[in-house]
Design brief:
The chain is of the alpha/beta class. The protein folds into 4 domains: about 400 residues, Uridine Diphospho-n-acetylenolpyruvylglucosamine Reductase, domain 3; about 110 residues, no CATH class; about 160 residues, no CATH class; about 110 residues, Rossmann fold, CATH 3.40.50. Helices cover about 40% and strands about 15% of the residues. The chain has 45 helices and 29 strands. The strands form 7 sheets. Strands 14, 15, 16, 17, 18, 19, 20 and 21 form an 8-stranded antiparallel β-sheet that branches. The chain has a 5-stranded antiparallel β-sheet with strand order 5-6-12-8-9. GO terms for molecular function: (R)-2-hydroxyglutarate dehydrogenase activity; 4 iron, 4 sulfur cluster binding; D-lactate dehydrogenase (cytochrome) activity; D-lactate dehydrogenase (NAD+) activity; FAD binding; metal ion binding.
């Protein structure tokens, strides 16, 4: 029986008592073949247990003699940078179902959680109690507790908070064979007595580990590096101390090589009451490193450092508008490095004294040149700055060109006092290869993240990666450090004997005790002593993503742009329901339906197309993944690499439907904008027909459309009746128009389905003393693009650019109403589908962008409006592409004495026609309930929505009509 047959037999038997999901689809295996590392390894299947009993049955089955060839690898957030959770065996994803917070005990400051709980999810639940779970991670919005335990994760503030294992009180770990091992620290004085009532397998594990640790104390003491970030996994020094036997220290950091953790009891800390973050800018990065020792004398909570590469990339990112004020530009010298120094205190007076003393130090100490310093006060401001720092890993992947920073030597740790000299040598090493790189990290702990830029599609890149790794291993060892200071060993485990020397055989004994046949995440941490011929996996023995990527046609690689450069950082796995990032992933919890998953599938589809390996089955699986995308474009704004799944989806659909037929609905929706001006002539008849129930059922069945929007009763009105000047097709005499003219660009949906918004904009323009001119109606093309009619979109785009350029040449402002439609003019219209596209010489402003150009403070406002509070629900495309525009509304309202708060919201679930498509209707409604529904129920008509889709969804599902913020301005002026 070959391996494929053995796996199939195993999974068939597993199904009989397994309540979770089992997925052997081509798409799932492909999506789970990558993480945040350079590697790509395709699993044989992906399974999703629902509870601990599923894990027990799984481990009992795999422990049977006939299945000893089967291997299992657990996976949490899947953001590992070293292939920790990649496998050629079966992957066990606990994040989909095992994500419950089981208990919070605020008195004893503990929490009991399942392994799939996300760190930020837990801290959000703990916040009302004034508690949090340390340590802090840059991936905290998607890192699972199980993943943190398996890599013994640490991060910012580790000098104070330590690593994950310092906060683990108890673990439930399912062992090979199906037993559940419950572990907590035992007193060394009477540990054997405490085990008297335990099962024999528990006694055996403790006794054997005690024997290993007790008999080899000298080797353990001399071999394990004494560092804040000393190691990950099999921590024998922490297992046996003067006071305790703590088996959790062995399990934490074991990367699933000893068992599968199902739940954990965690120690919690009080949230610091008063905090400040001092942001110091330096003339060069080396000065930032050298300054760390002196700064540490003031006992800060943490010191984070970032180099100029990351800083410049942050300036182009969605986060910069919130943090720019903390990093002021210097005319004389450029800031080449920054330190973020955080302090906390029990009282405000204590923090002010710390501030005074620290600033005095900065003033008096001159051993390095500091260019700037600013202070962020309180959790909100500090979180804004740290949001930039947290995105550093992803931002480094957004450099231009094919050579991108790669993670393979990126979390080395040395004694902090050696860091500056070590990094100088590290930089010299990389400079010797002529490589670019970015750096950031935790200088207080001696950990720095360094990512050399390589084009992994280059056949020589793998050898260079191995050579650099070998050199860095020697360099790190020379400075008394380790190769893995934070992100686990994974596929770097082959260097373990270098760093642990005589202690490495002890790690092999530990592995053999738990996993004698090497079935649990094999090739990592250690090999079992019971199998002397089995070796650890070398860093160049697993295929890299680049080896697959170079099989994609160059033309396709360029056309699909940044989607090809998805580096797996996992920002799209953000758990926060009030964040717009990828609503389809949030509602399905299926990684196939995430930007990372879709990017992975598109790349593989292009590779197979180019190599002649495509199959109808895989084509349809990729189609299904992309068809589930809402095209909301949140990924484009929020992914640090700017992965653009809506554009990749459009390009894929264009090619896919050259082979497979389209639904008739696609043609109708793609051409909807052109059809509406014709259908509106019979709007009353159309609306009446839509109200006939039998016809609705026929439409649902044939067109697969639900809740089809109706023409607004005012759709047939002439806009000139409301004071607008409607421009005819002839644009030759526009230079004679009044200088106070404002040109309003219509969109099909506001014009015909939500007409009062357009009319109120006309009235608002007039009330502000301007003259509203209506640009001749034309189809925007967004529906064509969304449904992959690229050739038709291209013709439309070319014509529209010429029209808008002509109008803009007269110098009048152009204003659009709906954000999703308006932003097409400055995004999709500027993408390179063809080479002969006219250059864009116009800018269509959003309403608030135009209003900000006016002097509104002198206007009189009704007193009634100033007594109300309004809440802005901005369209997710608008929020993520142009985050400053939301603040613009707030500033406009403030200038007029009106109160406006910005609501943190996810997606409403409508997204153009997505919510009307029958196959997506239920998901659309579920997405709405996650974030929008609670806010609508709370604030109702006080909510102001900028998006047509959002207002439609609220009206459809909550029977509430929301106003556009411009309408409230009109009412109050």
């Amino acid at each position: 029986m070959d391996m494929e047959q053995r796996v199939a037999q195993f999974l068939d038997e597993l199904k009989t008592n397994f309540s979770g999901d089992i997925d052997r689809s081509d798409a799932a295996r492909q999506v789970y073949s990558t993480d945040n590392s350079i590697y790509q390894q395709r699993p044989q299947a992906v399974i999703y247990p629902k509870h601990q009993q599923d894990l027990q049955y799984l481990m009992r089955l795999v422990g049977q003699t006939q299945y000893r060839e089967i291997s299992l690898t657990p996976r949490g957030g899947g953001t590992g940078t070293n292939g920790q959770s990649l496998t050629h065996g079966i992957m066990v994803d606990v994040s989909r179902y095992m994500n419950l917070i089981l208990e919070i005990d605020p008195i004893n400051k503990t929490a009991l959680v399942q392994a799939g709980v996300v760190k930020d999810q837990l801290n959000a639940a703990l916040k009302p109690y004034g508690l949090f779970f340390a340590p802090e991670l840059s991936t905290s919005n998607r890192a699972t507790i199980g993943g943190m335990i398996n890599t013994d994760a640490s991060g910012q503030g580790s000098c104070r908070y330590g690593k994950t294992h310092h906060h683990v009180l108890a673990l439930d770990t399912v062992l090979l064979g199906g037993e559940v091992l419950n572990t907590q620290a035992l007193a060394k004085s009477d540990w054997q007595k405490e085990l008297e009532q335990k099962p024999s397998f528990v006694k055996n594990i403790y006794q054997r580990l005690f024997q290993i640790a007790d008999e080899h104390q000298e080797i353990i003491t001399n071999s394990f590096p004494n560092l804040n970030r000393s190691l990950t996994g099999y921590d024998l020094p922490s297992f046996l101390t003067q006071e305790h036997l703590n088996l959790n220290a062995v399990l934490c950091g074991s990367e699933g090589t000893l068992g599968i953790i199902s739940q954990a009891k965690l120690n919690l800390l009080e949230i610091p009451k008063y905090r400040m973050l001092v942001n110091i800018g330096y003339a060069n990065f080396q000065d930032a490193l050298k300054d760390a020792t002196a700064l540490m004398q003031h006992q800060p909570l943490s010191i984070e450092t970032v180099d100029s590469t990351v800083l410049q990339l942050a300036k182009e990112d969605i986060v910069w508008h919130k943090v720019a004020k903390y990093f002021p530009e210097q005319q004389e010298q450029i800031i080449d490095g920054i330190n973020l120094v955080e302090f906390d205190a029990e009282t405000e007076d204590q923090l002010k004294q710390i501030e005074q003393d620290f600033l005095q130090h900065l003033k008096q100490d001159s051993h390095v040149l500091r260019l700037t310093h600013t202070i962020a006060w309180g959790s909100a401001q500090i979180s804004d700055v740290y949001a930039m720092r947290k995105r550093a890993v992803g931002l480094l992947g957004n450099v231009q060109g094919e050579k991108r920073p790669q993670p393979f030597v990126e979390d080395t740790a040395v004694p902090p006092e050696n860091l500056a000299d070590y990094i100088a040598d590290f930089r010299a090493l990389l400079d010797g290869y002529g490589l670019r790189y970015g750096m950031f990290g935790h200088v207080d702990a001696g950990v720095l993240h360094v990512r050399p830029a390589l084009d992994m599609k280059d056949p020589n890149a793998l050898k260079m990666m191995k050579d650099i790794t070998d050199a860095v291993v020697k360099l790190t060892h020379q400075y008394g450090g380790v190769l893995w200071g934070e992100h686990g060993k994974g596929l770097r485990s082959a260097y373990a004997p270098v760093f642990f020397g005589k202690a490495y055989p002890l790690l092999q004994q530990v592995k053999a005790l738990f996993d004698p046949y090497n079935q649990l995440n094999p090739g990592k941490i250690a090999t079992p002593q019971t199998l002397p011929n089995v070796e650890l996996t070398q860093v160049d023995q697993v295929a890299t993503r680049g080896s697959f990527d170079r099989q994609i046609a160059v033309k396709q690689w360029k056309e699909f742009s940044n989607t090809m450069h998805c580096n797996g950082n996992g920002a799209c796995f953000n758990y926060d329901l009030d964040d717009p990032m990828c609503p389809s992933y949030k509602i399905t919890r299926d990684r196939i339906h995430s930007p990372k998953g879709r990017a992975t599938l598109v790349k593989e589809w292009l590779r197979r197309e180019n190599t002649g390996q495509s199959t109808k089955q895989f084509d349809q699986e990729v189609y299904s993944a992309l068809h589930g995308c809402l095209s909301c474009k949140s990924c484009v704004g929020q992914c640090p690499v700017k992965v653009d799944i809506p554009d990749a989806k459009a390009r894929f659909l264009e090619q896919y439907h050259q082979r497979y037929p389209r639904q008739l609905r696609d043609h109708a929706l793609g051409n909807l904008e052109k059809l509406l001006p014709k259908i509106v002539k019979i709007a009353p008849i159309y609306n009446a027909v839509q109200a006939i129930l039998p016809l609705q059922k026929i439409q649902n069945k044939l067109a697969k459309m639900v809740d089809v929007p109706l023409f607004h009763p005012m759709a047939q009105k002439r806009l000139s009746d409301y004071g607008a000047y409607v421009i005819k097709e002839d644009l030759s005499n526009l230079n004679a128009i009044d200088s106070d003219a404002v040109f309003i660009v219509q969109d099909a949906f506001t014009r015909y389905f939500d007409t009062p918004i357009l009319i109120d904009l006309i009235k608002l323009v007039r009330k502000l003393g301007k003259k509203p001119y209506i640009v001749p109606y034309f189809a925007n093309g967004k529906p064509l693009h969304v449904h992959g009619f690229i050739a038709q979109f291209e013709i439309l785009r070319r014509n529209n650019i010429e029209l808008l350029n002509q109008i803009a040449s007269y110098g009048y402002p152009l204003v659009g109403v709906d954000p999703a439609m308006t932003l097409v003019f400055r995004q999709e219209y500027q993408m390179h589908y063809q080479q002969d596209v006219p250059q864009v010489n116009y800018q269509v402003l959003l309403v608030q962008e135009w209003l900000q150009q006016l002097d509104l403070k002198s206007l009189k406002v009704n007193q009634l409006g100033s007594n109300h509070s309004y809440y802005l629900a901005a369209h997710c495309t608008e929020r993520t592409q142009l985050p400053k525009t939301n603040i613009a509304w707030q500033e406009i309202y403030r200038d007029l004495g009106l109160k406006l708060e910005i609501l943190p919201l996810g997606c409403c679930g409508m997204a153009g026609t997505y919510g009307h498509e029958q196959e997506h209707s239920n998901l659309s409604k579920q997405i709405f309930t996650q974030s929008w529904q609670p806010q609508v129920e709370r604030y109702q008509q006080q909510i102001l929505a900028t998006g047509y889709s959002c207002r439609t969804q609220v009206k459809r599902l909550s029977k509430t009509e929301l106003k556009h913020p411009l309408q409230v301005l009109l009412e109050n002026l």
